[in-house]
Specification:
Elements (H helix, E strand, L loop, with lengths): L2 E3 L5 E3 L5 H17 L7 H9 L1 E5 L7 H8 L5 E8 L6 E9 L3 H6 L5 E3 L2 E7 L28 E5 L4 E5 L1
Antiparallel strand pairs: 1-2, 3-5, 3-7, 4-5, 6-7, 8-9
InterPro entries: Nucleotide-bd_a/b_plait_sf, RBD_domain_sf, RRM_dom
Organism: Caenorhabditis brenneri
GO molecular function: RNA binding
Length: about 170
C-alpha cells in the first residue's frame, strides 16, 4: 500500500505508487467517506434498545462482565453489558445494564429478580428510557404542609465564649 501515516492524523501518498494502487486508494477513500457518517441516536432507536435491556442492581463490586454474562446467558444472547463505574476511582457503582439481542429475553430474565449469585441478591428490572420523566404530582391532593416548598433559615445560632448570637451563613 502506498499510504504512510507520519504519527499524526494525516497521511500522504508515496509518489512512487503505481496507477493501480492510486485507483485502489481512491476507491477506499470513497468507501470510507460514505461509511463514516455521523451516527445519531434517534428516540425510536433508543426505545427499541431499551425494550431489549434490563437494569441489574446490588451487584458485588468485584463482579465482572464475564460473570454477569455467565449468569444471564440462560435467558438469551447478550449483545452488551455496561457496568457503571465511578469516573475517579473506577470502582463499580454496583449496577449494570444488560442489552439482549432479542426482546423476549427480557421477559425470561425478569423472574430472576431476587436471585442470589456469588453471595449477593441481585435485582432485575426493565431498563427505563433515559428521557422518561415522572408524571407531575397533583399538589391539590397533598396535605397542606406539603404544598409549599420548605423554607430554610438564613441564620444559624453561633455560640462562643464572648457572645451568643444568630449569624448569617
Amino acid at each position: 500500500m502506498c499510504i504512510y501515516n507520519n504519527g499524526c492524523n494525516c497521511s500522504y501518498v508515496d509518489p512512487r505508487c503505481s496507477p493501480e494502487e492510486l485507483e485502489e486508494l481512491a476507491i477506499l477513500k470513497n468507501i470510507l467517506a460514505t461509511t463514516t457518517e455521523k451516527y445519531v441516536m434517534t428516540e425510536e432507536k433508543q426505545k427499541e434498545i431499551d425494550s431489549r435491556s434490563i437494569f441489574v442492581s446490588n451487584l458485588d463490586p468485584k463482579m465482572t462482565e464475564d460473570l454477569i454474562r455467565r449468569c444471564l446467558e440462560c435467558c438469551g444472547s447478550i449483545k452488551s453489558i455496561h457496568i457503571q463505574r465511578d469516573s475517579k476511582t473506577g470502582v463499580s457503582k454496583r449496577f449494570c445494564f444488560v442489552e439482549f439481542v432479542m426482546e423476549d429475553s427480557v421477559d425470561i430474565a425478569l423472574p430472576l429478580n431476587g436471585t442470589r449469585f456469588k453471595g449477593n441478591l441481585f435485582y432485575i428490572s426493565r431498563k427505563k428510557s433515559s428521557n422518561q420523566t415522572k408524571p407531575e404530582e397533583n399538589k391539590e391532593n397533598l396535605p397542606s404542609q406539603f404544598r409549599h416548598p420548605i423554607r430554610s433559615s438564613k441564620y444559624v445560632y453561633v455560640s462562643s465564649k464572648s457572645q451568643k448570637r444568630f449569624a448569617p451563613y
